Amino acid sequence: MAQFRSWGRYPRSEAVLYPLHWQEDPLPPTGEPMLAVGMGRSYGDVCLNHGGTLLLTRPLNRFIAFDPVAGCMTCEAGVTLGEVLDVIVPHGWFLPVTPGTQHVTVGGAIANDVHGKNHHRAGSFGAHLQRLALRRSDGLTYHCTATTHGDLFRATVGGLGLTGLILSAEFTLLPITSPMIAMESIRFDTLAEYFTLTRESDAGHEYTVAWIDAASCGSKTGRGLFLRGNHAIASGGNTRPAPAARPWQIPCTMPRGLINRTTMRCFNHLYWHRQRARRHHCEVHYRHFFYPLDGLAAWNRLYGPRGFFQYQCVVTQPAVVEEILRWVVRSGGSSLAVLKVFGNHPAPGLLSFARPGITLALDFPNRGHRLFSLLQTLDELVLADNGALYPAKDARMPPRLFTASFPHWPQFVPFIDPAFSSEFWQRVTATDKGAVS
Amino acid sequence: MNIVIIGATSAIAQAVAQRLAPQAQFFLVARSEKRLQAVATDLSVRGARAVTTHVVDLLDFAQHDATLDRAFQTLGKVDLILLSHGTLGDQQACEMSFAETERELRTNFLSVVSLLTTLANRLITQRHGTIAVVGSVAGDRGRTAYVYCAAKGATAIFCQGLRRRLFRHGVHLLTIKPGFVRTPMTAHFSQGRLFVSPQRVARDIVCAIHRKKNLLYTPWYWRWIMLAVKSLPEGLFKRMTF
Ligand SMILES: Cc1cc2nc3c(=O)[nH]c(=O)nc-3n(C[C@H](O)[C@H](O)[C@H](O)COP(=O)(O)OP(=O)(O)OC[C@H]3O[C@@H](n4cnc5c(N)ncnc54)[C@H](O)[C@@H]3O)c2cc1C
Ligand SMILES: NC(=O)c1ccc[n+]([C@@H]2O[C@H](COP(=O)([O-])OP(=O)(O)OC[C@H]3O[C@@H](n4cnc5c(N)ncnc54)[C@H](OP(=O)(O)O)[C@@H]3O)[C@@H](O)[C@H]2O)c1
Predict the structure, then answer these.
(1) Contact between B40 and B51 (Cβ < 8 Å)
(2) CATH number belonging to domain A180-395
(3) Helices (H), ranges, chain B
(4) Is the pLDDT of residue B61 over 90?
(5) ipTM
(6) Residue A256 to chain B, least CA–CA distance (Å)
(7) What is the pTM of this model?
(8) Ligand 1, closest atom to CA A300?
(9) Among A140, A359, A431, B207, which lies 20 to 30 A Cα-Cα from B138?
(10) Is 60 exceeded by the pLDDT of residue A433?
(11) Does B41 touch chain A (CB under 8 A)?
(12) In chain A, where are the structural domains located?
């Protein structure tokens, strides 16, 4: 047994680690439940399996085929999105959808059906998936598309790793002419302004997202920076990506309490004042635009030994967002808050999270029960709005919030591989109410 | 760059090849056709100009020259040769049987000697090229798995001498001593904090190749760990259990 940590470093969990090096490697003969993991960039426990076996898929990182004319990529599930970009960008292609870090695997992107700043245009990652190969504990490999084994395909997209081990996948790419993003950053003072900005921008911009100040009180709450961007048109320059500068790294776990009410306010204050002008136009490399946090490796160590939480919900009403922010600020604030309006796309997976509505992601240092009681309050607001929480970011949602968030879960259950499970799944399907720790 | 990789399906070799792939031409050697194919396709997608594969069991020493002939025929000039094959045999089985020990020594030492003997002469004729041999920190002192240690230690000494000879002909030899790496070879170990990814050591290896380093400990701290291990008095060392 060895410790395996997810990105939030909570909860603590041990499992037998079983690396898979080749697609033909057999699944381990174990009586305990198993679960595939990629880069462990999920914040909570969807990638944990206490007492069971974790299938480490990162060594399955070989490309299988790339069609630079049609823009189609096939690779093993342990390839990271960063590796995909290194290959495709020089050929004038981009990921159809990317989350806020490039250090996630293709398998993880499928199993959480991740979304990005272009959800309003492109939907989630699963919408661009053509096929996947799934190894199950019956020893068979299922080659699934929307039409062959279509039900298993829809269960596996956003299936939280519970339907088996994804071996490889094929997905379509987005054509680009330059690795640069023409972006604009606009300051706003109120949430109402944000909603106007995003409404105006979504038609003309591939990418939109906003950072909001959820640490400062009073009229400052809800101010923020709205980012919008499009792939730049090539100016005849070289389109090779800038060589990755080795990022700075937080060398060890920082002491508890480093991120507190005061430092969160300072950080948010500085971030807001980073930009003097109301509007700022520039062209930046895609890495700076999409992955600013990747510039500081292991930044999750800043939150200390107790780890941290991200609370990402989707709700339908702007008023609920305001209400959530009020609660958050009243109880000490959030270190980082991000807001995005999702588009109107049908979800590709039975348990896909992204759906029409407004998604708000809030980071919090683990402050024990004080934080838990705040998040419970937020749960009630989300439930009352028929919203949902994102499993990829969750380590604590109660079972009733899970079932309310994912009304298709009964259809999903028959596709679960009997030899697979996860800590998340155990938790949200536990019948006793005490399951929330 | 024209690159020959012996033991091309090794996790460490794959990670090195992936970093060197853009514009390179590869000649890949290992035992399994299927795995070689997967590696070759990967390298092509990562930008390699051409990849040729060659299946051979390196315990069959008679095949070595033919293998290298084919490599040089295919690539013409060779810029880099990486020797990365190896096995971490069953030490207890070796203790019970010389046949087993011999097999380990043949895989991890003698096959390297056989290949290097031919390679050295070819590169000297070329007057150009780099040979990179994957040894191990295990070769620095005889520990519990002493058969493997002996093979890796002997390899390092052989390379040390050969480097002097090659140097006069403009040919470079790099000895690589990785610490613990997460690969199939160590999959059955309980992997502590000292284990690193093959990508991590590959970064150092590629850098050392470009800088024409003679000896690489990777990650860097193994140089100091092994310095400490080597300086333990024998009377104390023989009582220790690692
Ligand atoms: C800084 C940061 C920013 C982020 N931004 C976003 C964002 O903008 N949008 C978004 O949607 N998410 C975002 N995320 C979350 C992240 O994209 C997802 O959690 C993603 O799934 C992580 O991929 P991974 O490879 O680390 O998978 P893991 O976290 O290791 O696993 C995630 C899930 O995938 C399953 N899985 C992994 N590999 C396989 C496989 N081969 N076969 C079957 N199942 C598998 C696991 O069982 C688990 O359920 C962000 C995370 C971080 C750290
Ligand atoms: N992993 C570590 O912690 C570590 C530490 C220090 C040094 N090393 C050294 O690093 C090198 C690479 O090892 P790795 O960790 O990457 O291990 P690996 O993935 O297990 O690779 C071993 C390679 O050796 C090949 N091989 C073994 N016997 C062979 C034979 N008789 N003929 C042809 N090929 C043969 C294997 O080919 P097949 O695919 O055909 O089996 C495979 O490609 C080895 O020299 C090892 O000793 C490893």
Answers:
(1) yes
(2) 3.40.462.10
(3) 11-20, 33-45, 64-75, 91-96, 98-105, 111-126, 146-167, 198-210, 221-231, 234-237
(4) yes
(5) 0.95
(6) 22
(7) 0.96
(8) 53
(9) B207
(10) no
(11) yes
(12) 180-395
